[in-house]
Amino acid sequence: MLSVKQSDWLPQPLPESVRGVNSGLEDSSTDNNGPNGIVKYNMRKSLDLEHEGCYLQAGKKECLAECGFNATSKTIFIIHGWTMSGMFENWMHKLVSAVMQRETEANVVVVDWISMAQQLYPDAVNHTHTVGLDIAALINWLQDELQLPLEKVHLIGYSLGAHVAGYAGTFVRGNIGRITGLDPAGPMFEGVEEQKRLSPDDADFVDVLHTYTREALGVSIGIQQPIGDIDIYPNGGDVQPGCGLGDVLAVAGNFMEAVKCEHERAVHLFVDSLMNKDHMSFAFQCTGPDRFKKGICLSCRKNRCNNIGYNTRKMRKRRNSKMYLKTRADTPFGGYHYQMKMHVFNRKRADDSDPTFYVQLYGAHNDTTNLFVDVHDTNTIGLNLTNTFLVFTESDIGDLLKIRLSWEGDSESWNSLWKSLKKTFWGWNPKPTKPVLEVRRIRVKAGETQKKFTFCAQDPSKTEISPGDSVTFVKCRDGWEVKPRKRLAM
Fold first, then answer.
1. What family does the database annotate (predicted)?
2. In the structure, what pLDDT confidence band is assigned to residue 390 with cuts at 50, 70 and 90?
């Protein structure tokens, strides 16, 4: 855990080794911002980062012509975070390439502050204020020289770079169009006042992707609290698919790579949103991850859903900005969400049955494998209650045609075997009667299309289910479909 005093995260005077960088807005014509300076602004002309590109430098008009800066196009700044290597990470190459391919006319500028970022973490945190001021000074100069329209400026900051972007937005003259925070850093920023971190006031629109909010030793690598106009938490901002310790150790053999995988996933989700326009991932507004995992929050009414990453739409500012989605382990990361509701009736000695259910979805294009029904809160199916749960598919199966509900048998998995042994031991009954439950229909809402369907038992006489059994449901009508609202007579 980081041990820092309250004063440690306040902006401190720069050490001699990095002093001389422009730290105020009054004198924006410093000579330190060029290729040999502390903060460098590398405007990209080639997809290959090995090519030098050219450098923007406040106060040097000739660099504008040399770089071919076009003030009428979008201007996108990409800002890295803390680094131990002293070099750009691989994600930078991918992000720059994706932005340039998506926005071919844009001015794409890489903000290089590695000399200040490659220090002890608390020191790098202190420099975020200075670097933010420097970016603001450059943008102000571009406004003076070229009447740069701020609404076309987009700052994309990863980790510490997200808070650098926040400072830049605070100190620029006017209001920057958009800031995107990619898993903004948590240590020394969690819970501090808005002026000392990225916040909604830093741009006209601030969107944030949170991919590593899991706490360890009292600290989360990515910030947990919502800090934007929209805060999106893929997979609850917790464990990212494909980043489990086993997954990463099999490839890299390094524990730190697992940490990096989840923190960096925000960047790769953003790259995915730039490159895969055909299937954009949707996130859904919800008060918390547990409610989302229950499938309660798949509504798009009143702007309750949004695209993620580059395609996120600006929405009016609101109090609850938290949005959630599930993703695949690899690119393309987008999948398909279904809310399922089923009323479970207790028919025979099933009060403590604790069933393990699976569903298999049959679609017009494809079928899924058996998908585990993840029941939250009590970890048991509520009897004589309507149970709601979320089902996620990795591929588009087309229109849903049929659902197969299975109850795992007592010996089909260690989990079910253990449940069975516990009941046998505590009940002192060597041959317990098979529990019987009844499910008459399953109601489904597709998150991506917002369509609603009802499925009834294919065989009306076969609605009961016991361990080892399955019931098949097909589309039917029972009045759950969306109907036009009747206008009340005045």
1. Belongs to the AB hydrolase superfamily. Lipase family.
2. very high
> Has 328 been labeled as part of a binding site?
no
Please give the positions annotated as active site: 159, 183, 263
202 is an annotated ligand-binding site residue: yes
Displacement of CA 451 from its chain's centroid (Å): 24
Looking at per-residue pLDDT, the higher value among 299 and 486 belongs to 299
What percent of the chain has pLDDT above 70?
80
- Of the candidates 404, 384, 411, which has an alpha carbon nearest to the alpha carbon of residue 468? 411
Q: Is 194 annotated as a binding residue?
A: yes
Mean pLDDT across 204-210: 96
Q: What is the 3-state secondary structure (H, E, C) of the chain?
A: CCCCCHHHHCCCCCCCCCCCCCCCCCCCCCCCCCCCCCCEEEECCCCCCCCCCEEECCCCCHHHHHHCCCCCCCEEEEECCCCCCCCCCHHHHHHHHHHHHHCCCCEEEEEECHHHHCCCHHHHHHHHHHHHHHHHHHHHHHHHHHCCCHHHEEEEEECHHHHHHHHHHHHCCCCCCEEEEECCECCCCCCCCHHHCCCHHHCCEEEEECCCCCEECCEECECCCCCCCEEEEEHHHCCCCCCCHHHHHHHCCCHHHHHHHHHHHHHHHHHHHHHCCCCCCEEEECCCHHHHHCCCCCCCHHHCEEECHHHCCCCCCCCCCEEEECCCCCCCCCCEEEEEEEEEEEEECCCCCCCCEEEEEEECCCECCCEECCCCCCCCCCCCEEEEEEEEECCCCCCEEEEEEEECCCCCCHHHHHHHHHHHHHHCCCCCCCCEEEEEEEEEEECCCCCEEEEEECCCCCCEECCCCEEEEEEECCCCCCCCCCCCCC
What superfamily in CATH does domain 40-325 come from?
Answer: Alpha/Beta hydrolase fold, catalytic domain (3.40.50.1820)
Checking if the pLDDT of 207 tops 80, the result is yes
Distances (CA, A) of 268 to 82, 112, 199, 249, 275: 18, 20, 23, 19, 10
Return the domain boundaries, the chain: 40-325, 336-410+434-475
